[in-house]
Amino acid sequence: MAREQARPRGRQPELAALRTALGSDTGRVVVLRGPAGIGRTTVLTAMAGRLAADGLRVLSVPFSTAADDSRPDAYGIGPLLRAVRAQYEQVGDLRLADSLSAVSRMLELLGRDPDWWVPRMAAELATMFERFAGTGRIAIIADDVHLADEPALLLACARRLGCLVLAGCRDDVEHTLAMDELLITADEVITLGPLADEDVRVLSDRAAGAPLDDSVPGALRAALGPLYGNPGTTLGAVAELRTSGRLVLVRDRLCLRVPEEPVALPTDHDLVWRAAQCGPFGLRLLGAVAAWDGFGVDDLPSVAEALGVELAECGRVLDQLIAGGVLVADAAGRVECRCLALAAFALGHLGVPGRHRLHADIAANLLANRRAGRPVESTALADHIADAGTCLAVNDEIAAWLLEMVAVVRAHQPERAARWYAAVLAADSGRFPGTRRAAHRADPHGPHDRAVRAAWRGARTAGHPAVRTGIDVRPEGGRRAGHHAHLGLAGRADRAAAAGPARGRR
User: Fold this and answer.
1) Res. 118: pLDDT tops 50
2) Closest by Cα among 326, 335, 315 to 283
3) Full-model pTM
4) Beta partners for 140?
5) Rounded alpha-carbon distances, angstroms, from residue 293 to 38, 212, 343, 346, 419
């Protein structure tokens, strides 16, 4: 474990750059930045170990603990005091206690005239650093400095006294003037980028507890999109799959159980937290974007009307979600979730009844626009009708239109056609007994071939008019060719789960 902390996987270039940047006889401030989950703290911990091995006295100052203090601390001095006190007995200079008391007293006077307070605090910090260092040299590892309103005072003071300062901060949050000042005055700024695929694969296997089947990284990449190389996000998704029972051992590989089900972000992911910070409407609007599968800015009035909120409030929260990186907007003004895994979480958070109600509200709004002669995307409307379940009454007119849409898309989008067809079956159950049970078996979110076969059997048995008119959404041969071929061993995951624990390779 110690060796892994000293050499984080895939970060050798960044560690080498940090060693070079901090290889100075004078004080320096080096900033290491990157988005949440990119591994910033892991790299800082590794560098702290290397600097300590070089003989420096290392102070690890987590600025995130400043929130635990009883009074506001814009400078991060409270975490610094705790770090110094933790090593007090190792220093051997009794005068350090006087310095700690002096800095603590100055911290209690925070809020006084800054023209008096700032130079006095800087002088007390300088004395404390000198006594703490003794005849050696100090290296300060400051993490999450973006959480402080004014981190420059502490870090600049340490640099003037010859300390090496390595400060970690996020680059995916709103920058303050103080953070901009720190980035400008830093001696060097190093950015952590995404990990290489081979490194992500090794870390994912390690987190899963066994080698993953080749299909699983592909499913993770498709679900996470631009976040796949973010180790915190990828490993969090793997842990979620593992704890939810979605990973099944088949021989010596872990495969996805029900690979057609989406991979979702865990509830503690940073993007989920950001959406929740937008207020009660934040997660609800995120769910609407996911259910709508993205929409244009021009559709915002329809979205607000479907959700039953004021247009101004809907636009305000939408702007917050875009600014926070939860949603992305292209040049044409189309808004969608940051990745498919975030959309899957948002829909799962709504729950089945909530999803049905939301799709029904959206479908009702689109139907009203269609009847009023306003342009409506037919495919999106059919999707919402099919996903509304029993929350939307499908009359003969809507059913006939859905069957027309089935005939249009069945050749090139058979899965979509199966979902629409199942909605027609469910709506027609009163006139054709037995079709509701078949439609329930034709799970719109389940495997395509199973849904189509169940829907078709129910329609044929009930004598549904769609069968008599020749509308057939079955794939050729009654089964999609190669349905499991692209899954490798994953196609056997369901059967392995049903058969019980794997007994190893025979």
Assistant:
1) yes
2) 326
3) 0.78
4) 59, 165
5) 27, 30, 8, 11, 16
